[in-house]
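Hi Y.,

Following your request, here is the sequence exactly as I used it, all 230 residues.
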Amino acid sequence: MFLQFCQAAGITVLPETLSQPDPPDIEVIVVGQGRVSFELVRLNDPDDLKGRSLSRSANELVEHCFTDLEPGRRQALEARYQCAQIMVGFVETHGNDERRKAMAFVWTLLESLPDGYDGEVHLQCRGAPKALGLLYVTRSEQIMDGPWLRTTSMGGAYPLHVEQIGKKLATRYSKAIPLELLAYIERGEIQHADAKQRIQDEVTAKLPGSSFRAVWVFEQMHRQAWKVVP
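Below is the corresponding structure, written out as tokens. Let me know if you'd prefer a different format.
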């Protein structure tokens, strides 16, 4: 991630000189500047990261749940939904144990739907588990080896923990070499309109007099980096 940031920010470093003394998190020689230290702080909400991590393994989890069904039951579902894609939407903050329990509910629900059902399955009146946010059946003549099982993640945009920047700036460091702060959004982007202004306010108020000479922000999803000027 750090080298991605350097590329996005136009900072040329000598990668072979990179070390992690902790603290600070990284020391490296920057071309034209000499040795520079960087302290890192992640701004993501923990639930945001949890949801992103779970979404990457959701398709595999659903496939495993389907494979683990009793053979006769699985074959009946295959015949019934041979020409269908089934979209399962998980509420992103619910973990894999809750998702597996939700899939047991999904199989029973799919078995109870009318033959040829096509469209959204309304879950509100069916006592669906909290981990299940969406179930959608799409019939298509192009699907002959279904069911095609797909997943999506249900959730909103999480606010960034901008206050982490202020906490870092308030921490004293005794390193003699220049120190810069890198605030990053892991596998994500700034989704709230006021976040950049909040970052600006934190830096303007707390960078002067701190141990840091500069603050950077890195949006990993878009590979965008910028220096926050007080």
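The first strand starts at residue 26 and ends at 30.

Thanks again,
Q.
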